[in-house]
Specification:
Blueprint (H helix, E strand, L loop, with lengths): L19 E4 L3 H6 L9 E9 L3 E9 L5 E14 L6 E13 L5 E13 L6 E9 L3 H17 L2
Antiparallel strand pairs: 1-2, 2-3, 3-4, 4-5, 5-6, 6-7
Length: 155
């Protein structure tokens, strides 16, 4: 069975996905009136998982007027391997995320990393590779497309 098509950075989301909307501030902060400037902010998320392959998380932050503040797309692939004869889990992480300015400019980063966790060790991981760069104009346009798609599903 191949990995689902949605389990790829900036890929279209499945049509039946329903985003979750939650306040950024805690219920206690809101009740006590101590949330300050984040009192009306919301976090919009989509969480997808296919245990045999990995997961994907899309997160969007809106201010009290519904203005886009931040957004990102994160994918993690999981695979088992036997490097040097020992069992290990390798996870490949790729993400694009950052802040959106009022003028629409995106201030973000594209990250790509590979971690290896040995079956013999106690949940400790070794970073095999890690890279970061500014996202391309095409990647930013695709992230905005995904954000628009998620926000349209809220209505």
């Amino acid at each position: 069975m191949p990995a689902p098509a949605w389990l790829s950075l900036l890929a279209p989301l499945p049509h039946d996905v329903v985003p979750q909307r939650k306040p950024v501030a805690s219920a206690q902060q809101l009740a006590d009136g101590t949330a300050g400037p984040i009192a009306g902010w919301h976090s919009i998320t989509v969480n997808l998982s296919e245990p045999d392959f990995g997961l994907r998380h899309v997160q969007i932050t809106l201010d009290e007027q519904g203005q886009l503040l931040a957004g990102g797309d994160f994918v993690m692939f999981v695979r088992e391997t036997t490097p040097d004869g020992g069992e290990a889990t390798v996870t490949d992480h790729e993400s694009i995320g950052g802040r959106f300015e009022e003028d629409g400019d995106f201030r973000g980063t594209h990250w790509k990393a590979t971690l290896e966790t040995s079956a013999d060790e106690d949940e400790s991981s070794v970073t095999r590779s890690a890279q970061h760069r500014r996202p391309s104009a095409d990647e930013i346009a695709e992230l905005k497309r995904i954000i628009d798609d998620v926000l349209n599903r809220l209505h």
